[in-house]
Amino acid sequence: MQDEIETEEIIKDIFQQGKTCFIPRYQFQSNHMDMVKLASPDEISSLPKTSWNIPQPGEGDVREEALSTGGLDLIFMPGLGFDKQGNRLGRGRGYYDAYLQRCLQLPGPKPYTIALAFKEQLCHQIPVGEHDMRVDEVLCEDPCEAEGRILCEAP
Q1: How do residues 8-40 score in pLDDT, each as one tens digit?
Q2: Reduced to 3 states, what is the DSSP secondary structure of residue 36?
Q3: Are the beta carbons of 83 and 122 closer than 8 angstroms?
Q4: pLDDT, tens digit (0-9, with 9 covering 90-100), for 49-92
């Protein structure tokens, strides 16, 4: 079983709607991540892949970074597990948590965060640390609770 929902169709839909799409570029020697602009939906298949098999532009590939041009409205959050309180089990490096902290330093609202999950990834409780950021909503690929949609509750 895959451990994350494929997002290629979502990316295609973003472009079909005339919206701008940003994708993560990880710096593996730290927990730093930028969201960089994707030129087209077709570009995703030509990008080099990380050790996690995630396509991303290379370090030398100069691109617009979302935080330098006003931030983001929506972020799809990856994870291995999720609970109803919006807690997320990531891969332990804190890339998205650190990025969301950077978003909070900008004027304006925090981006809305959605986790895409298989029903097997929904857990009763996820352990959290002091730097973990919650997601606003979890969408499930199969009809599960609330017809596939869980609006996360504050603790």
Answers
A1: 999 999 999 999 999 999 988 888 999 999 999
A2: strand
A3: yes
A4: 888 788 999 888 999 999 999 899 999 999 999 998 999 998 88
Residue given tokens 């330098």 in the structure block: 68
pLDDT in tens, 120-146: 899 999 999 999 999 999 988 665 554
- Stated as kind and residue range, the H or E segment containing 139 is strand 137-140
Residue type, 76: F
pTM of the model: 0.88
Whole-angstrom CA distances from 35 to 17, 26, 104, 126, 129 are 20, 9, 15, 26, 24
The residues near 155 (Cβ < 8 Å, ≥ 6 apart) are: 85
3 phi and psi angles, rounded to 5 deg = -105, 0
Identify residue 122 by its one-letter amino acid code: L
Tokens at 9, concatenated: 């169709």
Q: What is the rounded CA–CA span in Å between residue 44 and residue 71?
A: 21
Name residue 98's amino acid.
A
Q: What tokens appear for 129 in the block?
A: 């640390």
